[in-house]
Amino acid sequence: MMCEEQQMSFETRNGRKMNRRNQITVKEEEDEAMDKLQIVDLRGMNLDSIPINPTINLAAICKLDISNNNLQSIPESLIARLLNVVVLDVHSNQIKFLPNSIGCLSKLKNLNVSGNLLQSLPRTIENCRSLEELNANFNKLSQLPDTIGFELLNLQRLSVNSNKLIFLPHSTSHLTNLRVLDARLNCLRSLPQDLENLINLQVLNVSQNFQYLSDIPYSIGLLLSLVELDVSYNKITALPESIGCLKKLQKLSVEGNPLVSPPVEVFEQGLHVVKQYLCDKINGSSKTSPKKKGWFGRLGKCTTFNGVNVRDVDRQGYIMPNYRSIDGLASPRYMGMFSPRRLFSPKSYFSR
């Protein structure tokens, strides 16, 4: 009986050893496969089309850079075969649409399509579930895919500034890993109401939507990770009192708005005074305002009012002074500064 137990134990140990050896072998094979992956750099070559060398294994490419060319389209078949691509950079071309096959790029983490002529993004982009950064600045986007936020749950940075967006889709509020949302210089009429789901959002920039954006959702007070908030150069007359609950907020930019509340003299005293002012308004209006009453209990969990002195919590906050509107810089004298070739030159892009 003892011999059988010893034999079973020996076999188990041997089995474990064999498993470990197998794991090591698999890891070595994966490392070898990674070593074989290639970086293809075709930027700044004035290409009108992408030269496809039949000897190149497209599945072995981990980074493809075809930026700063004259491309008007990207072949469907080419994108569909980039099975291991992690970084795809096509900025500063003349591309009018992305192929639907982009949804095949299951390992794609960084997609840069800025400085093109895109009017929309393909719905299939939501299948790129590994995507962490999407840069679609300086295009002609009038809308984003409705369901983009339901699938791209790993997205950490969404940059869609300098487009023609009228609204952000409701699903945007489901991007729970989002750190940065840059939607300035659009035509935004409103923001999603349930922003509180963006629990990791640190930077929110919706500035320079000019005469369009006139209201900020009350739910912004539940973005407890928010560090920077820029709502400058819009049509906002009052900030929601819930902003007073943002304990981590260090930068607040509100220039260029017809603000009535808080008054100018409050802003002149610094961000900590603005927070205190807004918190006092919550305490004073919670019983009389039906709209805010429903929020009061939820905002109470922030513990930034009712006994907590905001001055003690945050003395580092400030409102950015001497802010220069991009509207002022966009005169003919300065237009050269905003050309895609200048903004997205290889030197400036890869030095970041």
Describe the structure.
The protein is of the alpha/beta class. Helices cover 26% and strands 9% of the residues. It has 10 helices and 10 strands. It has helices at 2-36, 76-80, 148-151, 264-267, 271-285, 290-299, 310-313, 326-329, 340-343, 346-350, and strands at residues 38-41, 61-65, 87-89, 110-112, 133-135, 157-159, 180-182, 203-205, 228-230, 251-253. Strands 1-2-3-4-5-6-7-8-9-10 form a 10-stranded parallel sheet, with no helix packed on it. Strand 2 (61-65), helix 2 (76-80) and strand 3 form a beta-alpha-beta unit. The longest helix is centred in the first third of the chain and has 35 residues, at 2-36. It is elongated. It starts with a helix and ends with a helix. The model is unreliable at 1-33, 286-293 and 303-352 (pLDDT under 50).
Chart the SSEs and their pairings.
Layout (H helix, E strand, L loop, with lengths): L1 H35 L1 E4 L19 E5 L10 H5 L6 E3 L20 E3 L20 E3 L12 H4 L5 E3 L20 E3 L20 E3 L22 E3 L20 E3 L10 H4 L3 H15 L4 H10 L10 H4 L12 H4 L10 H4 L2 H5 L2
Tally of strands: 10
Tally of separate helices: 10
Instruction: Outline the low-pLDDT stretches.
Output: 1-33, 286-293, 303-352
Helix and strand pattern: HEEHEEEHEEEEEHHHHHHH
Described by the principal axes of the CA atoms, the overall outline is: elongated
Work out the helicity level. 25-40%
Q: Determine the strand fraction and express it as a percent band.
A: 5-15%
Structural class: alpha/beta
Strand order of the largest sheet: 1-2-3-4-5-6-7-8-9-10
Ends distance: 68 Å
Described by strand count, sense and barrel closure, the largest sheet is: 10 strands, parallel
Mean pLDDT: 79
Radius of gyration: 26 Å
